[in-house]
Specification:
Layout: H1 3-10, E1 11-19, E2 22-30, E3 36-47, E4 53-63, H2 67-85, H3 101-113
Antiparallel strand pairs: 1-2, 2-3, 3-4
């Protein structure tokens, strides 16, 4: 069996959740024995200083025998967070239109200084 055939057999059902710089992949996969399990992958985009980017990925494997307990705890934890803090996002950096302060300040400084040079003579210093 080729790698492509194996991947096609292994991936049964998938959903994607895009959330700002993060993307979550939910994939139902097949074991060699033909049973199913779930993988949840968080992929986070990072930009390098040179403008190129890379991704960091974290993966959770969740097997059928753990589905009920996992779902129960996940529901309990999310309900606790909503009950304690509400559904409103408090952290600005998690807003979809968030830009880092220093990025905003750099743009403002560049905009303010373009074409505003002053001629100075060394005699004036």
């Amino acid at each position: 069996m080729s790698d492509k055939e194996y991947l096609e057999k292994e991936e049964i059902f998938s959903k994607v959740l895009r959330a700002g710089r993060r993307t979550y992949f939910f994939d139902v996969r097949s074991t060699k024995a033909g049973d199913y399990y779930l993988t949840i992958t968080e992929s986070k985009k990072f930009t390098n200083d040179d403008g190129s980017f890379h991704y960091k990925k974290h993966k959770i494997y969740l097997y059928k025998e753990d589905f009920v307990a996992f779902t129960d705890i996940m529901n309990e934890m999310t309900a606790y967070v909503i009950d304690e803090k509400g559904e409103e996002v408090i952290s600005e950096r998690h807003q979809k239109d968030y830009k880092k302060e220093y990025e905003t300040e750099e743009v403002a400084v560049e905009t303010a200084t373009v074409g505003s040079f002053t001629d100075i003579s060394f005699d004036d210093i």
